[in-house]
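Researcher: Please generate the 3D structure of the following complex. Treat every line as part of one assembly.
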Amino acid sequence: MRLSRYFLPTLKETPSEAQIVSHRLMLRAGLIRQEAAGIYAWLPIGLRVLKKIEQIVREEQQRAGAVEILMPTIQLADLWRESGRYDDYGEEMLRITDRHKRELLYGPTAEEVVTDIFRAYVKSYRDLPLNLFNIQWKFRDERRPRFGVMRGREFLMKDAYTFDVDEANARKAYNRMFVAYLNTFARMGLKAVPMRADTGPIGGELSHEFIILADTGESQVFCHRALVEMAAPGPDVDWDDLQAIVDERTGLYAATEEMHEPARFEAETAESDRLSARGIEVGHIFYFGTKYSKPMNAVVAGPDGKEAPVHMGSHGVGVSRLLGAIIEASHDEAGIIWPESVAPFGVAIVNLRPGDEACDAACEQAYAALSKAGLDPLLDDRDIRPGGKFADMDLIGIPWQLVIGPKGLASGELELKRRATGEKVTGSLEALLNRLS
Ligand code: ATP
Ligand code: MG
Ligand code: MG
Ligand code: MG
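Model: Done. Output below.
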């Protein structure tokens, strides 16, 4: 991409409405624009990062056996009457009436829709296990939308729904999502800790929130320190038997505020290992048995031919919230520091003197070579002062900056800067291109 033909509306001033650093940086770096409270337009580089995050989530869901579908954003109120949730959901639900006076709603989640799809087609235990996921916009009329995409009203969520013949199998499906989430967040450079979470009126033990520690997080959390640094299991695991991996983590204390038991925390965790911190909920997995399948009559015939309600779980990831969480975890005074896996571009080529023949030619050479190497370069060929270019490239957080100017070209000493550390390497264009690709 050539910046002279791109759309990168960065702001010099810090927007006064933004209270936390990720929100400020997302506005300043031109990632998003607020159109209404908690409702955002995604600008080019914001959209690029969103798509990269979405793709990592998708790949890890598929690796764990989930199958992608796409459900509508608009749902029928009557489906929610069947599950009994229509009235309970309250003011967070955006209710809509169409021209025929039919009651609709903008989906805040999709248990009812997916159960409706399931019951239309699946009748036998032989078709299980099944895990259907989608990555779709949701709307919740949050009382206090704030912190930018962290708590939006319209937001992008990955929601997976598991269907199993009984609790034992549902637990296996749960474990697959548990491990998929650890791998997903690790690929984005995040340290996510699974914590016991409230299952509300449904009860049961099986619910975990995945939490990123950050001072600006909205939840208070308590956990064993070792959980924060524990490496993700990675893809090479036995996906049919993940109990040991799950047990290793759930064996250490970790709970959100609603589930916190101070006496148990103290009994189970040495004082020096106790961590009490703020956190951001980026994912949530939940086994809820037959809560929806029973009232909605989603039944499967077992080996004995008897029909029984299917056992279900739902598993959410806050895809758009993750942009905020990653920036909270990875930034400095100058701006965002994207992990390479989600960066909008792999490398920025900074042309210090557009119009200079040698500079332009070297930049074109670099652009072609880096494109060919799959590094997705952004060429800053704008006719502005170098200082402005450096500031913008730091602000938008591209992992590498290749700086090409007349002096460096003449002496064979061009500069390659690593955004995360500020570390600089000098060398000829060939040497630096070799290093990058
Ligand atoms: P929160 O406690 O932050 O309100 P939640 O528990 O209501 O979230 P879930 O129903 O568990 O959310 O939804 C799954 C995931 O969707 C959450 O873990 C979170 O990452 C994301 N999410 C929920 N609400 C929002 C929102 N208003 N804006 C952005 N992401 C959200
Ligand atoms: Mg909520
Ligand atoms: Mg929550
Ligand atoms: Mg939740």
